[in-house]
TrEMBL record:
Source organism: Nocardiopsis aegyptia
Membrane topology: Multi-pass membrane protein
Spans through the membrane: 39-63, 75-94, 100-123, 135-156, 162-186, 198-218, 224-243, 264-285, 297-318, 330-348, 354-372, 402-418, 424-442
Protein name: MFS family permease
Primary location class: membrane
């Protein structure tokens, strides 16, 4: 594959991933305006945000297998086209049910697009420094998306309209779709054939959707019955899924991946990392800044810039260079410890000047997050056969989504029980502490390049 084609693949993967991640958070700031404009009740307004997450998390594992079966560029093109169409329908909606339906379709297509973007990188770039740099850029986009979504949502809602929050996807989506078409022509056909078990797809989608819903309502007033019903349904569906996957020759996750200890431990560490970086950090910082510190939505969005820029700088510039000299698991351990200390600082600094309450702890958390996420993504994909690249990407993305969902539910519960958001930040710090303990047990795989012997920084 030529250098130009690889660069196009990197651009398409990052632009598509940015759209997917932005739409997790970009609507949150716009919700009051959406509720007023469409005359939505409180429950309907909540579903505008919830519908995307349910569609996204529910289909991730199934969507990831499509790239292996149908081809990465083809799946990316069709997925991003559907995502863009749903964005247009949502941006032009005049009824609440239309907007909620569009958000569901956005989530479903995002579940296909997100793993396809990562699979595109692992197939376009051979293992080595070039792939590490590409993954670092993709990871930086994924990490920065939460903060950028908050800023973008505030700016577009204040200066244009809440509709612009969704309609801004149209030109970007069109460009990514065209890039995907070009990649289909310029890259080898990577379709692996095979099938996806229909029963497995239905059971996995139902189980993950019920689990996501149960976690999203946990701890809210009057949620005991829906939480118990959805939780019980998810347990039953997952039990049936395990039994079905043992019998079928068309598994959603190849057995070889589940037997690979570095991949299993790496994905567990990914899920624990997501307790902080997927949703929880952005969620609790947003409320602290607006409710405790009196920031406006736009000021709160801009206050995320130190955290966002810190992670971007470390992740894209320092981490790839360090990975040439330092084992990936050592960087994961160090990054988790640094970010955990930053979260402890954030928990304690709930009043005072901006420099001490937001700026300094955010920089520390950003440095730690920038150090650990790319090595983790590399660990769970190094040495994976090409025909299993989509499944490995789906496993990683599923770990992120459900780590984030479980983390948010748990952090919300402990914060409510303690009567302060300090408990939430300390819980996230504890999750990263567990990552720091787990990381040394993730042994280097044979296909993973060893650090340069005697290089500086060892």
């Amino acid at each position: 594959m030529s250098t130009a084609t690889r660069r196009l693949a990197l651009w398409a993967a990052c632009a598509a991933q940015l759209m997917v991640v932005l739409d997790i958070s970009v609507v949150n700031v716009a919700l009051p305006s959406i509720r007023a404009d469409l005359s939505l009740g409180g429950v309907a307004a909540t579903w505008v945000a919830l519908a995307y997450g349910l569609g996204f998390a529910g289909v991730l594992l199934v969507g990831a297998r499509l790239a292996d079966v149908l081809g990465t560029a083809r799946v990316l093109g069709w997925g991003i086209a559907l995502f863009t169409l749903a964005s247009a329908v949502g941006g032009l909606a005049t009824e609440g049910w239309t907007l909620i339906g569009a958000r569901v379709v956005q989530g479903l297509s995002a579940a296909v697009v997100s793993p396809a973007t990562f699979t595109l990188l692992t197939t376009a770039y051979p293992e080595g420094p070039a792939r590490v740099r590409a993954i670092a850029v993709w990871t930086a986009v994924s990490l920065a998306g939460g903060g950028l979504g908050t800023v973008t949502g505030g700016v577009l809602t204040d200066l244009v309209s809440w509709r612009a929050v969704l309609l801004v996807n149209l030109p970007i989506g069109a460009a990514v779709a065209l890039a995907a078409v070009a990649l289909r022509w310029w890259t080898p056909d990577d379709r692996r054939g095979g099938r996806i078990s229909l029963a497995g797809a239905v059971l996995a989608t139902g189980g993950f959707t019920c689990a996501t819903y149960a976690l999203s309502v946990a701890g809210t007033p009057g949620s005991a019955v829906p939480f118990a019903a959805a939780g019980s349904a998810s347990v039953l569906l997952f039990a049936l899924l395990v039994a079905e996957q043992r019998r079928t020759p068309h598994r959603l996750v190849p057995a070889a991946l589940l037997r690979d200890r570095p991949i299993v431990r790496g994905n567990l560490a990914t899920a624990l990392t997501a307790v902080c970086f997927q949703v929880g950090l952005w969620y609790f910082l947003t409320f602290r800044m607006q409710e405790q510190l009196g920031y406006t939505p736009l000021q709160a969005g801009l206050a995320f810039l130190p955290l966002t820029l810190g992670m971007l700088a470390v992740n894209t510039w320092a981490t790839p260079r360090l990975m040439r000299r330092v084992p990936a698991r050592a960087l994961v351990c160090t990054g988790a410890a640094v970010a955990g200390l930053g979260l402890v600082w954030q928990a304690l600094a709930d009043s005072g000047p901006f420099a001490l309450t937001i700026l300094a702890p955010s920089v520390v958390v950003g440095v730690g997050g920038g150090l650990l996420n790319t090595p983790l993504a590399t660990i769970v994909t190094t040495g994976v056969p090409a025909e299993q690249a989509g499944a490995a990407s789906g496993l990683m993305n599923t770990g992120k989504q459900f780590g984030g969902a479980v983390g948010l539910a748990a952090a919300t519960a402990v914060a409510a029980g303690a009567g302060t958001d300090r408990a939430a930040f300390l819980l996230m710090a504890a999750a990263l502490g567990a990552v720091a303990v787990l990381a040394p047990r993730i042994r280097r795989r044979r296909a993973e390049p060893a650090p340069v012997s005697g290089a500086p920084g060892r």
